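Let's practice the habit of predicting before peeking. Look at the sequence and jot down your guess about where helices and strands might fall. Then scroll down.
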Amino acid sequence: MASPIEFTLFAPYNKGAKLIGCFSNWEEIPMEKGKDGYFRTKVELEDGVYQYKFRVQSKSWFFEPDQWVDVIDPYATDIDNPTQNAVVRVKDGQRILDTYVWQHDDKPLPSDRELVIYEMHVGDFSGGEDDPHARGKYKHAIEKLDYLCELGVNAIELMPVKEYPGDHSWGYNPRHFFATESSYGSTEGLKKLIDECHAKGIRVIMDGIYNHSEAESPLTQIDHDYWYHHEPRDPDNNWGPEFNYEHYDENLETYPARKFIGDNVRFWVEEYHIDGIRFDAARQIDNYDFMHWIVNEAKQKASMKPFYTVAEHIPETTSITNVDGPMDGCWHDSFYHDVLAHICGDTFDLERLKDVIDCKRQGFMGATNVVNYLTNHDHNHLMVEFGDRQIFDEEAFRRIKLGVALLMTAVGVPLIWMGEEFGEYKPKTTESAKIEWGLLGNDLNRNLFEYYKGLINLRKHNHALYTENIDFFHENPEAKVVAYTRWNDEGSRVVVIANFSENFLAGYRVDNFPAAGKWHEWTGNYDLESGEDMLLDIGPYEAKVFVWQ
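Done guessing? Here is the structure:
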């Protein structure tokens, strides 16, 4: 039995719009415009799957005045890739996205301060060069969740999964904001990935692109300057038409771009049960009023569950996270640059090092206000950086471990770019670059994985590392040694001693040790006693991590 299904298009200043679809043999169906700016029509449809588009008289400046153009519904939740038509599903007389039934919404999830985030590109995560699949899919990521559980991460940050043109991209060119990338699998596939993550206590943070869209995104074709800035505000940092969050439509009393993105964020939180959003290019969005509003919309829709909002603001700024700032956290790019320079031996600047290990020195307020990383998708893997400096094999792995010790014990939330945990060596590329899983069969690579695993485990069990508390109690610029302690009020205490020189330091004395008594050295798995001073051997480019017993 057929039911009336309504199709709507918000295009308040366009003269005409019509619906075309397989249900009308692609003949035009007229639409009526209401005073609210919406074109509407209803079509009697049986349960099933249908393809459709809108035909609209465009107001975009790059078309002839009032030229008729065919556009995909900006709110389409599924796109048929070969035809580039919108897809609508009707079941029991209602429009639906899919029939997925969530299984694990009742599982407890970690709080923001407990997070260890793993940044993942779905298409490249699935397999190495021998992988028979052209593209990694959601189902292949699900197959590797036990691996992530063994590593110990408890949050995945998915690089953008909104529908983009073609079959390979990092996803920072979203064309359809409500539809998922079809080359990764179905909407049910993405929901199952998120659901299975929740079953294992892993939160899912979505990388959200709200600064811009891809050039042929539907809103650009309907009325470009209603939703977007007419031209780039910063031509050197332009990745597509930029949403205009300042533009206010007095007739309809709405901010058009905010309305669209607000609808989108609420949709993703409600429909896909995501646990956070990373806001790409926040510096280019450049509108704290909008960001406050959109974060509030997301958190209201998330309701009682934890929801972490992170800004990519390069260079980072404390204002985006502090008392009046819109975001919970900020990508800590100076941590990456300064730690890299020190473990590569490019420089030794104790004050810079202290600044990034203790973000409070830079003006950040708390442990969840920065997300630290040794690298991410925007940068090369550390192995590439070391190779460029002719540092190879055991020497490279030793220096990486020094970086990992800092990453897991600094103030802030740690993030790992996929493959970094076992020494992936492929250079950064926007082309397909699947993870080389076979590296885990090599002793050095496996050993690095175990080192990561151990320090993540330490972080999750020593809550001193969740706090803002840090004290640099030993500094020796000549020997290039620094030591700091982390603690909480419940008696948990961790001490890190780091050697940034090429010298093996035998019988090195660390004075003013935070507490006399028994300590366990985590990386080498041995116990030792300290008095007011600690005597120890510490290798070149090595960190010792002591836990109070």
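How did you do? The chain has a mean pLDDT of 95.
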